[in-house]
Amino acid sequence: MLFRRSFTPSLIVAAAILTGCTAFAPRADAPVAQRAMALLPADALLLGEQHDAAEHQVIERETVETLAARGRLAALALEMAEEGATTAGLATTATEAQVQAALNWNEKAWPWSAYGPAVMAAVRAGVPVVGANLPRERMKNAMADVSLDVQLGKEAHKAQQDAVRNGHCNLLPESQIGPMTRIQIARDRAMAQAIVKARVPGKTVLLLSGAGHTAKALGVPQHLPSDLAVKTVQLQAGVPMTSREPGAFDAVWLTPALPEKDYCAGVKRSS
């Protein structure tokens, strides 16, 4: 995990948009249910959040409820749980403790109070919740896997490297940029594989992750098969000051801006 919990907006500085990507979309202030349904049909719907924006987790829960209520939700896949973890087999009446145990939930990394409502909405609807993130024990191997260096195009790979530098507050030695970029790519591949495994014809797998993972040119969509229809959404707190490249997402859902925060301040002081 990078130092900044909300590093994903910086990852997509070169690969995101504010307008022009959703000609088919309802108004920006339309209910979440209406905006979500406007993106369907899709085999996979990727919601990319800013991790410290509480309103984004509310939107995620509402999206789960919308798809589940219409019988359209195949599975809920999470960056917040590791690959192999699943609630499949649990009853719809399972307790939150049972669900957390099934997902091997890491409370220190991902507060249950933020993500539990979306997870439990899926469980209550009888929809499996699956971990999609690369297991920690596989990260060392990923760092040494040079085949990951060619999984993206040249420009996209450079953008990922720049994002890793920025996400670590420009404190990483240059020798670590390549290995850490491989981890990021391996995580995207793991999430893509989780989506493919959970795929159900006529329904939608919903992925919840940081927005950098949902960017079309850099993230999970790069590792999905071409026959899988995927739609991506960036959840954006406030309007970024930087201009963004058209086409990175199918939709951008704006939420109120958060108070300005220097995510690197504490890291730099302690380094």
Largest sheet: 6 strands, parallel
Number of helices: 10
- Please write the string of helix (H) and strand (E) elements: HHEHEHHEHHHEHEEH
Level of helix content?
25-40%
User: Which band does the percent of strand residues land in?
Assistant: 15-25%
**Could you say which overall geometry the principal axes of the C-alpha atoms support?**
globular
Strand order of the largest sheet: 3-2-4-1-5-6
Instruction: Evaluate the radius of gyration.
Output: 18 Å
Question: Can you put this structure into words, describing what you see?
Answer:
The protein is an alpha/beta fold. The protein has helices spanning 8-11, 32-38, 54-69, 96-102, 112-124, 139-143, 154-167, 174-198, 211-214, 265-270, and strands at 44-49, 73-82, 129-133, 204-210, 230-237, 251-255. It has a six-stranded parallel beta sheet. Residues 1-23 have low confidence and may be disordered.
Any key phrases for this structure?
37% helix, 271 residues, alpha/beta
SSE layout and pairings?
Layout: H1 8-11, H2 32-38, E1 44-49, H3 54-69, E2 73-82, H4 96-102, H5 112-124, E3 129-133, H6 139-143, H7 154-167, H8 174-198, E4 204-210, H9 211-214, E5 230-237, E6 251-255, H10 265-270
Parallel strand pairs: 1-4, 1-5, 2-3, 2-4, 5-6
Helix pairs in contact: 2-3, 3-5, 7-8
